Amino acid sequence: MSYQGGYYQDPNQAYYGNQYPQQPGYNPNYPPQPQGGYPAYPPQGGYPSQPPPPGFNPAYPPQPGYGQPQPGYPPQPGFAQPAPPMSSGYGTGYDPETGSVKGFEFNDQSIRRGFIRKVYSILTVQLLITLGFISLFLYHRPTQLWVKNHPEMFWIALGVMIVTLISMACCGDVRRKAPMNFIFLTLFTLAQAFLLAVTSANFNSQEVMLAVGITAAVCLGLTLFAFQTKWDFTVMGGILFVAVLVLMLFGLVAIFFPGKTITLVYASAGALIFSIYLVYDTQLMLGGSHKYSISPEEYIFAALNLYLDIVNIFLYILTIIGASRD
User: Which family does it belong to (predicted)?
Assistant: First the structure.
């Protein structure tokens, strides 16, 4: 240490004040001072601020009160995009093109398809039970003898069929609430199958099987026609109701004037009317572009309508075959 100019000078501090060498990146004019010698204050709200330095990101890390970057600032590295809005349903991913969440959401078409599958599943079970009863009564001799020795079973089955049919047709809770609706439908199907089997036992087995085959072909063709046609049969409910009333009156007249010709005319008219009814009930079940449709909650009622249409078509075709061979 040496004595110079009244101060002790350390050799290790040879540079003091302005004698210290300029460091790399040193800018004596930064930050710029305002005129008047006042120190520069940080930018306040509402006053213009200095442009941000390179790499500055006002929204990262996320602070309370910060939102999206201001217009004109490109997204900075590491900036977290906000999560897309979620929607109801089962989302599988965000679609940036449409701004929505991809997923499987329930709509009218999916509900209607499930309703149709349920109706035809129930109808298939009903037809299999009916076909089983008919086959048993046609080919099992002890069963035929037992039914002939107990005629009261026919009237019991007829009463059960009428009561369950009226209950399901007139009472909405009976055909909508499970398991009551399935119980009533099962009782009705068993009673109707028993009545059909007793009726079929009065005909030859070949005639019955021929009627079953023709009925299956007709119903399949009418169902495909109802699915494909652009004609709306749901507007024909009133016309079909009047046609059924006329058919009932014609049947009462045919009782007092029996004959082969009047029987063929009556059976042919009945088969035609209930064939149109099958198309009508099928389009009610399909819904879509048709004017009228049945609610998806009414799957028991829809299956019941289709089953009754098929049963009536079978009975009238069997009557035609029996009358033509008599």
Answer: Belongs to the BI1 family.
